[in-house]
Amino acid sequence: MNLQLNSLSDLDTAAQKILDFASPQKTFLFYGQMGAGKTTLINALCKQLGVTDNTSSPTFAIVNEYRSPNGRIFHFDFYRLKNQAEALDIGFEEYIDSGNYCFIEWPEKIPDLLPEHYTRIQIDVLSDSERNISADKI
Q: What is Dmax (Cα atoms) for the chain?
């Protein structure tokens, strides 16, 4: 699936299309350069899933948990990990095996810990306000 976003106003619609495409998959891996909009897209996905709390990047906490009518949502940001053992130390495998939504930024930091099945999201920057988003089920 490919989507082109021409402005932030397209984000909620794109998020719903991604969730519909991925269903019933609940694990999402986000790829894209720094500043591409991974966290912004995850915030929109959380909104579509009914999260009413403020969502933000868990850059320093590594994982944030949100509650929604669809169950718990775990948002990981592995940018600052020094090694894969740090992900194991926070119980990453238990989160992934929980059956809840898991949104993972910088999954390239944990190549040996990735689940067998997931939805891969690639965000490519086209301009300051435009993005191309591709989604593939793995």
A: 40
Residue 37 belongs to domain spanning:
2-137
CATH number where 7 lies: 3.40.50.300
CB 132 within 8 A of CB 3: yes
The span from the CA of 121 to the CA of 135, in Å, is 5
pLDDT, one tens digit per residue, over 68-89 is: 998 999 999 999 999 999 999 9
Find out whether the peptide bond into 115 is cis, omega within 30 degrees of 0. Answer: no
Model's pTM, two decimal places?
Answer: 0.94
Chain centroid offset of residue 14 CA: 13
- Give the per-residue pLDDT at 81: 93
Provide mean pLDDT across the span 22-27: 96
CB neighbourhood size of 126 (10 A): 11
